[in-house]
Design a protein that fits this description.
It contains 15 helices and 8 strands. By secondary structure, it is mostly helical. The termini are far apart.
């Protein structure tokens, strides 16, 4: 007798028969969603139990993940991770990409370091929440023996692996994400640090002394780039990558109006390409124009070549030479190395790193002008609610904080000069120990501003 044709996901009548042993068998034909026809049978002590067992198996078969041409339920975790990275790398070439190339590189590093050695040979359908949580815990445990905990790394790796498995769900290789219920400890938020105005003076002096000490020595001629880069960071709060990505076409030192710097790019490290200029800041909110203080203007004027093109780097890797078609900017690595050398000579080793200058600028501006101006200067989004998000055109010109940052530098210089005068007075008259009214005023300025 011919069977009626079943549609995908349909099954025929469930037949129940009794064996000589007294047990019952239920059986049924079922057409799976992929068109394949199969028979399901289950043996139980009663007919109703056998029927229920067959119905449960039908439900399992129809709802089981079937996978796609790229990924199957029994595919290895390593394959799923590689395909996710490859997808992201392709998407990073799109206009306004959802992930930038350097972000994809970081995901690949995270998974290659922490996921692949532990779970790459597991099959997707072998993953459970317990297996995934044990993996997360192993990252945190590995950090207990080192100088830094691995809580942030564990959270980042967890997020990346969760995205890998979300993609597996899209490809019907999983029905649920076993990473969803995993947890990591709460991240410890570091206390922001900032330099004092005296520290700012010491830093600026250290890099200039280091630059002067190189004059007449073998090797490349001093360019003044490191002191100028420090002054740009102190005058703008820019990240080191944003500073070194500047071209002269983005710097306006004209005396006819306000001197400004336009932030339109940053330097990033991309696998296989090295350090390159990315024609967009780190974030969408980071595209802005900053009015710069006088000390920054003077530093930039000191290093500006007689002739420049709009695409000439402000901080080139080598001196401008006639006939050179194009120049590359200095890398953050090289500037950090030079800064460490200058700090070592000034006995300030370990006291300053480039990002500390950014937090110093933010702290000083926030105390003098408020959090909103500090956020706008740094290129952070200022939460203005629905009206600001949808109905007000975003201001591309950062608030004018040049006077505040000029004062930050001048206060440190004045304090250092007066300390030098007091030292000379004490040397000439050992009994003169009482502070002057002017010195007390400087101390009050330091205390009130929290520096």
């Amino acid at each position: 007798m011919a069977h009626d044709r079943l549609g995908p996901g349909e099954h025929g009548e469930i037949f129940i028969s009794r064996h000589k042993s007294g047990s019952y068998q239920a059986r049924v034909r079922i057409r799976l969603l992929n068109g394949e026809v199969t028979q399901v049978s289950r043996n139980r002590k009663s007919g109703s139990a056998a029927r229920l067992a067959v119905q449960a198996e039908i439900d399992t078969l129809l709802n089981a993940p079937r996978g796609s041409a790229q990924l199957k339920p029994d595919s290895r975790v390593g394959l799923a991770a590689r395909q996710w990275i490859d997808d992201l790398r392709l998407q990073s070439t799109w206009p306004n990409p959802p992930r930038r190339p350097q972000t994809v590189d970081e995901y690949e590093r995270l998974l290659g370091t922490h996921l692949i050695p532990k779970l790459s040979k597991y099959r997707l359908n072998e993953l459970t929440t317990a297996v995934c949580q044990d993996w997360v815990n192993s990252i945190i445990e590995a950090g207990k023996s080192g100088p830094h905990d691995m809580v942030v790394t564990a959270a980042q790796a967890r997020g990346a692996f969760k995205a890998v498995l979300d993609r597996a769900i899209v490809h019907d290789a999983l029905r649920y994400n076993p990473m969803d219920k995993t947890t990591t400890p709460k991240r410890k938020v570091p206390d922001p640090k900032a330099m004092t105005v005296t520290d700012v003076y010491r830093l600026r002096k250290a890099v200039r002394d280091w630059e002067c000490a190189r004059v007449g020595r073998p090797g490349p001629r001093p360019t003044g780039h490191v002191p100028a880069a420090i002054d740009v960071m102190l005058g703008t709060g820019l990240r080191i990558g944003e500073v070194l990505a500047l071209n002269w076409g983005e710097v306006n030192l004209s005396r006819d109006g306000l001197p400004t710097i336009a932030v339109d790019a940053t330097l990033v490290d991309i696998k296989g390409q090295g350090t390159v200029r990315q024609e967009m800041p780190k974030t969408d909110a980071g595209r802005r124009t900053i009015i710069i203080p006088q000390f920054t203007v003077e530093s930039l004027e000191a290093i500006r070549p007689p002739v420049t093109q709009p695409d000439t780097p402000v901080f080139p890797s080598r001196q401008l030479r006639a006939g050179r078609a194009s120049m590359k900017p200095q890398t953050p690595h090289n500037v950090r190395r030079s800064l460490r050398a200058a700090l070592e000579i000034a006995n300030m080793t370990g006291e300053v790193h480039p990002h500390l200058l950014r937090s110093t600028v933010a702290t000083f501006v926030a105390r003098e002008r408020g959090m909103a101006d500090a956020a706008a200067l740094l290129g952070h989004k200022v939460n203005g609610g629905v009206t600001a998000r949808h109905y007000i055109e975003r201001l591309r010109l950062a608030p004018d904080t040049s006077a505040v940052l000029q004062a930050m530098v001048e206060i440190g210089e004045e304090a250092a000069a007066k300390e030098t005068d007091r030292s000379k007075t004490r040397t000439a008259d050992p009994g003169a120990g009482a502070p002057s009214a002017t010195a007390e005023k400087v101390a009050v300025v330091d205390e009130d501003s929290g520096w």
